[in-house]
Write a structure and sequence with these properties.
By secondary structure, the protein is of the alpha+beta class. The chain has four helices and four strands; from the N terminus they run H-E-H-E-E-E-H-H. The chain has one domain: archaeoglobus fulgidus dsm 4304 fold (2-Layer Sandwich), CATH 3.30.2170.10. Strands 1-2-4-3 form a four-stranded mixed sheet, with helices on both faces. The model has no long low-confidence stretch (mean pLDDT 93).
Length: 126
């Protein structure tokens, strides 16, 4: 399905839920490539929709590469980049989530974990 700004969850949520069904151990948090909360009005992004689908039991951290108009995301600079990542969260405070993203493994702007998942998904869709 094509990407529609603010509606990434329509395309991505079913896939995320299918993967998470296979996880046998309890989760401390889930990291998504996208917004948890879209704007200062609290409109739900992919992360908030996932959080609701998980019955609000697991915090979800959203890491976005582009700014969404009206977003109150915490900006995180990594790897010497001058372009920030935009971090939002549900089920935990956004500052705590941003600190965690800043400490994630990898020398680049995008944490290693997100780079690897992105590559796996791209390879699987070919």
């Amino acid at each position: 399905a094509p990407y529609v700004p603010g509606q990434l969850y329509l395309r991505e949520l079913p896939c995320l839920l299918a993967v998470l069904e296979r996880v046998a151990r309890p989760l401390d948090a889930v990291l998504v490539d996208g917004y948890a909360v879209l704007d200062d009005l609290g409109r739900p992004g992919l992360g908030a929709h996932l959080h609701a689908a998980l019955e609000r039991r697991v915090p979800v951290v959203g890491v976005a590469k582009t700014h969404f108009r009206g977003s109150t995301a915490v900006e995180v600079l990594r790897g010497g980049s001058t372009r920030p990542l935009y971090v939002t969260a549900v089920g935990m405070g956004p500052e705590r989530a941003a600190e965690g993203v800043g400490r994630m493994h990898g020398p680049h702007r995008i944490p290693t974990l997100l780079r690897r998942v992105d590559r796996l998904c791209r390879d699987a869709s070919r």
